[in-house]
């Protein structure tokens, strides 16, 4: 019989810092009326009897981006999976405009786009067909055609090539194009820059910047230092800092 | 979300799965080939006793159909799970159960429907009298969708496991038994010449019941498998 190794470290606090050095308190104020668009309250995640994080709070408002940092295995992916609703937190809740996303279900998911470790594209379909499915699953964005989305990620001319024939970087670009074709306000990105070349990373940073300027939000993990040209409010959380 | 976009998501997903199946035709033939081969081997093994072959015929066809369905089940969500498409379905703006229903329908169209089409030929091979063949067809068109629907719940539960195959069979086969019993009984009754309304009604009830409940159960199971 394995003893229960889980011990809740009540004293450990995560330091959330914004760019302007404002430090959020981790104490939950559930009584206060929430005005934030996207909010996490006192999240806890336990994996294999290890507490990855507990009492984790943050808020994201339109135009802001949450950047998760931390060493491998510190729970970045788990946190992203919790805030997009694939995984349930051990305790705490995630709120979208004040309502628990668990109760919102598809109503929350029409506002989100998730890019995980896996691209989520079918190898046997062409980029165009993959995008069409992605658009159908979400709420279609009217202002952009599928071809334009492919052009924006630098896949112009690859519309009808089977996805399996694309390089790893191009497949990643296709996955990013998926974010553009739906009307999602919140982008949840897990290592979006994996296998992209330097120019690709720059292009993607511009796309993310445009999205934030449109009033979008983002939550992402990355080991790459993000170089936004303009002033973007980044909420940084380091999951290794304890 | 409007009903219109929900319908279009349903057809989009159905079309996607059919396209994918078409581009992997070689895998698609497997269940049908299995079905035909197993049924064709039986008369050879039993010997030239027409009475005996006629007696076991309905059972052989249905057991072969059952195993063919089981063989094809694992593919229903496996590739979507591996390439991350399943996560995208769970995070879709549409109810997951409707999307799942589209996938089950696609699965039935590529695995169940061919069995239905091949069945009359095999019925002749197994010496089932011509009068009973329409009943056999009816049981197949009512029964094979139930196999896909019930199977989808099992697949959804085991898709996260690395070796889910054996558990899947143990999980799903007992649930297939009622379909097997009533379907074979219907065909046997039809061979004797007695009306088969009772058995067919029960099969229809199973179809309606699983059509309503299985997508919901599958959606919930997928959520468990992914979290």
What are its keywords?
heterodimer, A: 242 residues, alpha/beta, Rossmann fold, six-stranded mixed beta sheet, 7 helices, 26% helix, disordered N terminus, B: 227 residues, mainly alpha, 0% strand, elongated
Mean of pLDDT of chain B: 91
Separation of termini of chain A?
A: 30 Å
Number of strands of chain B: 0
The shape of chain B, in one word, is elongated
Summarize the amount of helix of chain A as a percent range. 25-40%
Largest interface: A-B, 33 and 29 residues
Q: Give the number of helices of chain A.
A: 7
Question: What is the mean predicted local confidence, pLDDT of chain A?
Answer: 80
Low-confidence stretches of chain A: 1-34
CATH topology of the domain at 12-25 and 34-105 and 221-242 in chain A, by name, is Rossmann fold
CATH class of the domain at 12-25 and 34-105 and 221-242 in chain A: Alpha Beta
The major sheet of chain B is characterized as: none
Helix and strand element order of chain A: EEEEHEEHHEHHHEHEE
Question: Reading side by side through the largest sheet of chain A, how are the strands ordered?
Answer: 1-10-4-9-8-7
Query: What's the domain count of chain B?
Result: 1
Span between termini of chain B:
25 Å
Order of helices and strands of chain B: HHHHHHHHH
Topology (elements, then pairings):
The complex is a heterodimer of chains A (242) and B (227).
Chain A (H helix, E strand, L loop, with lengths): L15 E3 L19 E10 L2 E11 L3 E6 L6 H8 L7 E6 L2 E2 H4 L1 H4 L2 E4 L11 H11 L8 H7 L15 H14 L4 E5 L7 H16 L3 E5 L11 E6 L4
Parallel strand pairs in A: 4-9, 4-10, 7-8, 8-9
Antiparallel strand pairs in A: 1-10, 2-3, 2-5, 5-6
Chain B lengths: L2 H21 L1 H22 L3 H24 L1 H9 L1 H6 L5 H30 L7 H26 L6 H28 L4 H30 L1
Helix pairs in contact in B: 1-6, 2-3, 2-6, 3-6, 3-7, 3-8, 6-7, 6-9, 7-8, 7-9, 8-9
Give a structural overview:
With 242 residues, chain A is of the alpha/beta class. Chain A has a domain at 12-25 and 34-105 and 221-242: Rossmann fold, CATH 3.40.50.300. Helix content of chain A is 26%, strand content 24%. Residues 1-34 of chain A have low confidence and may be disordered. Chain B has 227 residues and is mainly alpha-helical. Chain B has one domain. In chain B, 86% of the residues lie in helices and 0% in strands. In chain B, helix 6 packs across helix 9 (197-226) and helix 7 runs antiparallel to helix 8 (165-192). The radius of gyration of chain B is 18 Å and the shape is elongated. Chains A and B meet through strand 7 and helix 4 of A and helix 1, helix 4 and helix 5 of B.
